[in-house]
Amino acid sequence: MFDPERMQTVRRLIVDYVRSPSLRHLRDPHAVDDLTKGIFDAIDRQQSVWRKWEGEREALLRAATCTWTPTEDLQAFLNDLPGPRLTHTDVAQRLRAIQEEPYTRYPDAELREDCLALYAREKADGTELPAIIGALREFVETESERRRQTALADFRRQQDEARQALEQRFLAGADCKWAKVGTTRDLYCRVNGRAYRLSPTPQKRWALFRIQAVDDSGVRIGIYGTRGDANKALAAMAYEPEPR
């Protein structure tokens, strides 16, 4: 049955979503999941056990789920909106229920103090609560992305350092796993004091060579379909007597 009230609720959710000035927020899968969940909740609200959450109340609370907005301030603002009076427990438990839904994020504990400090500054300036929640969401999104990029850069740096350490280990004559040396696509390793090179072939296979030095053309041992196959062969032959 057509329900104008629910249609208006869904329309309001979509309008609020596309009003965001952040393209990153609009494209964020978590934000899309939040919008989708909000639409389903609006459609299914007649079957909901949460009777006090109508109209703008639900949308505002969902927007605040990851922001560390003080519950007592949420309660005061929500009680100024149309609907039955909300207690502190009403707000806290509805917020918890939303946070426990699939695709909904809990607030990040590491951002708690920064969020509360930003909230306090905006409140002191007289910013209204929906705008503060919007600012907090943008801060959380920006900071989460910054931390993700920092973690990715740290991971790449650690990978590069490990690659360089492995390369130096091979060049120093120590036993080591497969290492890249310079810019070549070849891989080098040393087992039982013996050096080997693994070179990709045009047929997307791997040619294994016994070498004496990096610039040595070497003696081909065999061609293998995968690096795993080459490793199995190498594990045995590296400890067998070498042909003269």
What can you see in these coordinates?
This protein has helices at 4-18, 23-27, 29-43, 56-63, 71-78, 88-99, 112-124, 129-171, 227-237, and strands spanning 176-180, 187-191, 194-200, 206-211, 219-224. The chain has a five-stranded antiparallel β-sheet with strand order 1-2-3-4-5. By secondary structure, the chain is an alpha+beta fold. Helix 1 runs antiparallel to helix 3, helix 5 packs across helix 6 (88-99) and helix 7 (112-124) runs antiparallel to helix 8 (129-171). The chain has nine helices and five strands, in the order H-H-H-H-H-H-H-H-E-E-E-E-E-H. A hairpin with a 6-residue loop joins strand 1 (176-180) and strand 2 (187-191). It folds into two domains: 4-151, no CATH class; 173-237, no CATH class.
